[in-house]
Amino acid sequence: MASEFYKDILAPTGVYKFYADGEWRESASGKSVAILNPSTRHACYQVQACTQQEVNQMFDSAKAAQKSWAQTPLWKRAEVLKKVAALMRDNAQPIADCLVKEVAKPAKDSLTEVVRSADLIDYTAEEGVRFLGEGQLLNPDSFPGHARNKMCLVSKVPLGVVLAIPPFNYPVNLAVSKLAPALMAGNAVVLKPPTQGAVAGIHMGAVAGIHMVQCFHAAGLPRGLLSVATGRGSEIGDFLTQHPGVNCISFTGGDTGIAISKKAGMVPLQMELGGKDVCIVCADADLGLAVKNIIKGGFSYSGQRCTAVKLVLVVDSVADALVAGVAEGVAKLSVGMPEDDCDITPVVSESSANFIEGLVMDAKEKGAAFVSGPYRREGNLIWPVLLDRVTPDMRIAWEEPFGPVLPVMRVASPEEAVAHCNASKFGLQGCVFTRDINAAIALSDAMETGTVQVNSAPARGPDHFPFQGFRDSGIGSQGIRNSLGMMVKTKSTVINLDRESYTMG
């Protein structure tokens, strides 16, 4: 263990404990789940396999703890969250080390994720005091036929117990983006660390999440207010998402989210799902700027980002120059292990690598040009692939690779690019490169995506910006203020005045 701060989270058997009712515990199941290192494809950690009974106890504790937490003043909730942020910064390295081993994230980027998460918590505490402290007073006489004989006090109240399910690729930041708003809004939270590879039950990000939760524990969060359920999705996944104690589900991931939404019933949902983020390059674009952003947007963290550039739609007249520039940049990307801070590191699992390879081979069979050279793979490590002359009949034109693969499709006009964008089942983000601000606004208006970046690659942050997807890319909106709004419901208290005494005055 890299820090004494984290000593309580590991059992004598070497298996990481789960967290419930303010304590780190070993499961009564006596079972554990292995976490595979994507780089070595060998087990690097073991986590507890929680039972359904233990999950039931988590919800019972959460429900009881939430009642008093909801009565805790906003400034006191904010104080606790600020302590969490400070502890996370002071004890960041072990969390970052877990990210390197669990999800093969480069070491520098792993530490950046932890620090960014602490910043998000601080901002949420401050914004929460302002936003949640705002109420509303309505008088009835603004509506026809009513006298001024009532007062309506409108306030924001917690939902209850939030089930938070972050993804493997940003298991700390996207967990915190759910935990901090939910807790600040007066809710309790049951956290289910991410699962990658449902068939094999391989957990990714669970241990980093466990380390992160220790910061909440050490900050003095009330017992029962936060729990961590680890285990196989096949055993506790549906049990969690359909649990009667759930009052809200905040999920980030892929197709699993669609299945959850169909089963959730009347539970409020905040979901950020898949994306096929397009990059439209117009004839008048600054090609140097476009090239730089396309390389960063397409290959950062090996393309394993929901906001990665996943399809370049470039106007014919500048396509040759753009592809040549991107190819030159791709050739400079370092390929290797995350401990060495390489640009391209192993993708998260063998099943993911196999899926990516299937998309690439389909494109090859249908005539795509391999600009970056022959396809190369060693285990989960895939060398960056730049595909030119991609056509709509190829799977890569529509499906999300979630890997270091960048397809380029040549189009006759920006309008043709927009038509392809809007024909996708996804609508998370997109970007446009042009020197004409009028054209940029017109294209943004026409693109049916949650966010359009002008002259920059798609990106989730800054974390207080609204972030949402259309169609199969999501439900609800994120961003700190929007997430706070998702974690509360509106309550009205109507005071009826004695009309006669009121009018006498």
TrEMBL record:
<keyword id="KW-0560">Oxidoreductase</keyword>
<dbReference type="GO" id="GO:0005737">
    <property type="term" value="C:cytoplasm"/>
</dbReference>
<dbReference type="InterPro" id="IPR051020">
    <property type="entry name" value="ALDH-related_metabolic_enz"/>
</dbReference>
<dbReference type="InterPro" id="IPR029510">
    <property type="entry name" value="Ald_DH_CS_GLU"/>
</dbReference>
<dbReference type="InterPro" id="IPR016161">
    <property type="entry name" value="Ald_DH/histidinol_DH"/>
</dbReference>
<dbReference type="GO" id="GO:0008886">
    <property type="term" value="F:glyceraldehyde-3-phosphate dehydrogenase (NADP+) (non-phosphorylating) activity"/>
</dbReference>
<dbReference type="InterPro" id="IPR016160">
    <property type="entry name" value="Ald_DH_CS_CYS"/>
</dbReference>
<keyword id="KW-0521">NADP</keyword>
<feature type="active site">
    <location>
        <position position="272"/>
    </location>
</feature>
<keyword id="KW-0963">Cytoplasm</keyword>
<protein>
    <recommendedName>
        <fullName>NADP-dependent glyceraldehyde-3-phosphate dehydrogenase</fullName>
        <ecNumber>1.2.1.9</ecNumber>
    </recommendedName>
</protein>
<dbReference type="InterPro" id="IPR015590">
    <property type="entry name" value="Aldehyde_DH_dom"/>
</dbReference>
<feature type="domain" description="Aldehyde dehydrogenase">
    <location>
        <begin position="24"/>
        <end position="492"/>
    </location>
</feature>
<comment type="similarity">
    <text>Belongs to the aldehyde dehydrogenase family.</text>
</comment>
<dbReference type="GO" id="GO:0008911">
    <property type="term" value="F:lactaldehyde dehydrogenase (NAD+) activity"/>
</dbReference>
<dbReference type="InterPro" id="IPR016162">
    <property type="entry name" value="Ald_DH_N"/>
</dbReference>
<dbReference type="Pfam" id="PF00171">
    <property type="entry name" value="Aldedh"/>
</dbReference>
<dbReference type="InterPro" id="IPR016163">
    <property type="entry name" value="Ald_DH_C"/>
</dbReference>
